[in-house]
Design goal:
Layout lengths: L26 H37 L5 H37 L14 H6 L7 H11 L1
């Protein structure tokens, strides 16, 4: 059986999905979440490169004086929208990096508040979860 530290090297079956019958956050489950998070990270990084290219192109077109005032307004709006998307993606990348760090240090799947298991169903639904459902609900109520 693999140790928790070996989860990055585990080759999972193509249709593997963690099951409640397995020990919580066993090496296979850690490998599953590691692959999901890394894939999300790669997609976001590629998307971010694409967004930045779009911003550069719109900025260049705008600065070259191509088009009229309505074109310029459209370019400005496109740049603003792309920059917001890029900022959102950067925030998500930070959360993914934090989750990957928790995988490495053995705290992934456990609440940052109480240290209790977050639960497999919640982790499958939201791999970036850092609190149990109850803790998250309490946090949301306090924010209001």
């Amino acid at each position: 059986m693999a140790t928790k530290k070996d989860f990055k090297k585990i080759e999972l079956p193509p249709k593997y999905v963690p099951k409640k019958t397995e020990p919580y956050m066993c090496p296979e489950q850690l490998a599953y979440f590691y692959h999901i998070l890394n894939n999300q990270k790669q997609e976001l990084m590629q998307s971010n490169d694409s967004v930045l290219s779009s911003v550069r192109m719109a900025d260049k077109t705008s600065n070259d004086g191509v088009g009229d005032e309505s074109d310029s307004a459209m370019f400005e709006q496109e740049i603003t929208m792309n920059l917001r998307m890029s900022q959102r993606d950067n925030n998500l990348l930070k959360k993914i990096d934090a989750a990957l760090a928790r995988l490495d240090n053995g705290t992934y799947g456990y609440s940052v508040v109480s240290g209790e298991p977050i639960g497999l169903q919640r982790m499958l639904a939201r791999p970036l979860a850092t609190m149990t459902i109850e803790e998250q609900e309490e946090y949301e109520q306090r924010k209001e």
